[in-house]
Every structure is written in C-alpha cells, then in structure tokens.
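Follow-up to my post from last week.
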Amino acid sequence: GDVAKVGQLVNKPQSAISGEEGINLEEIREFAKNFKIRRLSLGLTQTQVGQALTATEGPAYSQSAICRFEKLDITPKSAQKLKPVLEKWLAEAEHWNQKGQQNLMEFVGGEPSKKRKRRTSFTPQAIEVLNSYFEKNALPTGQEITEIARELNYDREVVRVWFCNRRQTLKNTSKINVFQAQ
Amino acid sequence: GDVAKVGQLVNKPQSAISGEEGINLEEIREFAKNFKIRRLSLGLTQTQVGQALTATEGPAYSQSAICRFEKLDITPKSAQKLKPVLEKWLAEAEHWNQKGQQNLMEFVGGEPSKKRKRRTSFTPQAIEVLNSYFEKNALPTGQEITEIARELNYDREVVRVWFCNRRQTLKNTSKINVFQAQ
DNA sequence: AGCATAAATAATAA
DNA sequence: TTATTATTTATGCT
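User reply:
Got it. Predicted complex:
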C-alpha cells in the first residue's frame, strides 16, 4: 500500500512523534517551513540548492527533491535523513552570504550573475506561422520544433517555450468556457 | 529623455539622498528588499498583493506594479509614493497572519470595507445542505467548495466564507481546537 | 500605466 | 530522477 508522507502525518496529533523511529514530525514541519523562507531570503531557487548540494554532498539532489521536502511530500524516514543535510548546508550558505552576495554565489557554484534572457518579440508573420503549426499540432516533437525554429530563424528554445505558453493560454481560456468560472 | 530609476540611482553614492525631493533612496532599497521577503514569508504572490491593494486602497495596483517596485524599476517619486501604502498594508497582513492563515487569506481575498458585498441570505434548505456537508468535512477543498456552490447556485466566494464562519463559530463555542494547526 | 505574454520557477507526472 | 505542466515573475510594448 501507500506510504504515508510527513505532510499527511503531521496533522494527526497522536503521531506528532513517530513512536518507533523517534521522528519528531512537528520539528520537521517547522524546519521545512523555515527552510523555504531562509532559502528565499538568500534569493536561491530550489534548482540552485539541489545543484549545490549535489556538488558538496555525496548523492544527487534534484530540484524536485527540494520541492518535495519543502512541501513535506516525502516519507518521515527520508525527511529525517535529509533534514540535517539541508540544515548544515543552509547555515553555511547564510554564513557566506554574510560576507557578501558574491561569496554566496561562489559557494552555490552558479554563474555569479546569470541575467534573465531578453524577452523575444515575435514578428506578426512569425506568430501567424507558429499559430498555423499550433493548430495542426499543439504538441510538436523535438524534431518538429527544431525544424520550425530553423524555418523562422528563431532560437529553438524560444520556439519550444512559445508552444508551452501557447498550450497554457489555450487551457486557461477554454477552462472558463467549458466549466464556467471556477 | 529617459527617466532614471531607483535601481539605477541607488548605487551612485552621491545621490543616495535625492537632494531636492528629499527622497532617501537607500531606505527605499532596503524596504523593497524586505518587502519581498516578508511577502514570501506570508506566502503571497505579487498578484495577490496587487489585487488586495486595489480592493482596499483607492487606485489600481497591478501585478506588474508590485513587481517593478520590488525590482526598483520605478522612478524615485513613484517609489516614494508607493512605499507607505505597501508598508501599511503589509503590516496589516502580518497582523492578520498572526491570528491564523485563514484570517490572512480572508484579509487578502475577502471584500474590504470599501464596496462591501451585500449580505447573502441563505434559504433554510441551503443551510440544511451546507450543514450536512460541514458535518462530513468542515474544511472542504477549493474544488469541493466550487461543486457545493454550483449545486446550491450560490456564489463560490459566499460558500467559502460560510465555511470559514461556520468553523469560527464552532471553534468559539466548543473551546476544543478541532483543527490544531494555527 | 498596465496588458499580454515570454521567461523563470515550482510542482507534478511519468 | 527526468520530463512536462502549472504557476509566478518580469518586460516589451504603445
């Protein structure tokens, strides 16, 4: 059967302290909440934390793993194991941050100042072509995206994101039509 | 020509205090940074802040406006004007949050003193149905609320508030905190 | 002055 | 974990 997650268990008073394993769920919940706030205060993303942990600690930590810890969508055992790792790492990150933003970024390992990509402006002609492709197939394969990008002379990634956002927009507008205001 | 923004000016020492207008740019920068952290600590999005401000304060505040304030992509004059508004609102939001997450969400999403919604009169039949749902589950999900609202043909927000109030009443009378958290 | 939407981030599916 | 969707933030535009 399913394994219960911290987030589900923590609201059941009788299990606030998991008897056998001696895991304090309330403590974990408190830490997870604080972890998120402290992470954001440092201006770090889940991806950055995951990558930095992967570099300094042994195993791999994905963005999803950090996300799941913060949401407590994780078993008590995993949480118990992950908590000290995150605690130690975060304290260290805060320490470097004290010495300046630059030091933190070096500790984290990312490029010091990764600038946001300039917003792309599609020409009306390009949008027309994109829409005609979208009508035929809203979910093009990687190969198709590459071809469309080449035809329009735009960056492949830009075209990929355009299709993501276009699907999103369609979903949002059609949701209103189909189900009426949620 | 272009108008200089706070974010550009604040790093020029000689202009830390804007002479003529007496605007303390450093203070604004400090506040903007803190505002973001405090907003995230409350778990609020820029959109939510904008909408809430639009409801309680006079003019309209878009998500873009909040975003631009946080990034200081705004003229000193605008920043100076916006700062006290945000400061006051955020302090109030934090105050409500102290009293529980539910209160904060009501403050953010609920109708303010401005054009208050007409008080809804539930029919006895509707109250009966609501109570039967409440007995089964005092804390319905957003989806469940939507469904109940549709079944009874009441506004979704009205139903949501009914559950809030019903829980509040129960809490006040029973003294036993059924819902633990907060 | 803020809408529309591109880009980035978080959450979930596979 | 990795892919992909869903949500949020940021910005080009007029």
